[in-house]
Amino acid sequence: MQNSRTRVAVIFGGQSAEHDVSCRSAASVFRFLDRGRYDVLPIRISRAGVWEIGTDTGTGAEFPARPARSGSLIAALGALRSVDVAFPVMHGPFGEDGTLQAVLETAGVRYVGSGVLASATSMDKQFTKTIVAAEGIAVADGVVLRAGDDDVSAADRARLGLPVFVKPARSGSSVGVTRVDDWADLEQAIVLARKHDTKVLVEAAVLGREVDMAVLEHPDGTLEAGPALEIRHGAAFFDFDAKYTPGAAEFVIPAELRPDQRELLAETAIRAFRALGCGGLLRVDFFLTDDGVVLNEVNTLPGLTELSQFPQIWRAAGRTYPELLDLLLRAAR
């Protein structure tokens, strides 16, 4: 009897600073994928860039103790051609930035999420802001520091004010991000950000409630925005520890909002999805201010751990984790 299950390659790990977060996200995906519908091929990319092909245990993945470096990518490409769809559970550079998506497209493999261009532009915070601002969506004021630029002019300092946030242009999970309350600390913040990217953003702080929106694309192309999630925490900002330490932050879903605020957030999140040309899924992080909404950043492959905002939003909307995964795989292109 022919196997009617869909064969899925779950790709995770990677060379970015978010390697561990990716592994945690993948662990949740392995645990909740319905084995009655899917055969799973685990593919892990090590910190050194080695592609490791594993076996599915039913709730997780097992890998050889000493994977061979030689030909690992070639072997992985051969394995990828045997699957029906790939699920990149990757965060950060070399996974969320179009690099992996280009490999999958070259191999002719359907995959979950945004394409090469949308992944690349959405990963770069400067490009994201340029694109959505052209659509009339408000973004924080800021300065771009490229290689060789190590300071902010007096005029820009006066315009931005304090505090400012210094962040790598192409990173996530608040890796390399510093809140600067004194210009004397700017140099050190830039040095930290440059450990993760040669391009650095210095952004004015926005006073407002931190609200996240999740957008899903259905197989027929319909876009749906989930209920708003408000982040409440006691940290100076929603940093890595606050994101991934149990109990460090509280997610209020649905956020306590007026109907007009809910409608504005949902409409703006979908506008951002379309403006960036995204596919499958997107998390859009906003500041809700007295004057409206300000887009902070977007994530084309948001965290999928049990602590992560994206699955919690859809759980609050009544969609279970297995149902969420199934919808994402059916919408793959």
Most strands sheet? 6 strands, antiparallel
Q: What is the CATH topology assignment of the largest domain?
A: D-amino Acid Aminotransferase, Chain A, domain 1
> What is the second-level CATH architecture of the largest domain?
2-Layer Sandwich
Give start-end ranges of low-pLDDT stretches: none
Order of helices and strands, N to C? EHEEEEHEHHHEHEEHEEEEHEHEEHH
Name the CATH superfamily classification of the largest domain: ATP-grasp fold, B domain
Distance between the termini: 28 Å
Please indicate the count of domains: 3
Q: Please, how many helices?
A: 11
| Average pLDDT reading | 92
Strand segment tally: 16
CATH class of the largest domain: Alpha Beta
- Give the oligomeric state of the chains in this entry, treating copies of one chain as homo and distinct chains as hetero: single chain
Specify the helix fraction band: 25-40%
Question: Which shape, going by the Cα principal axes?
Answer: globular
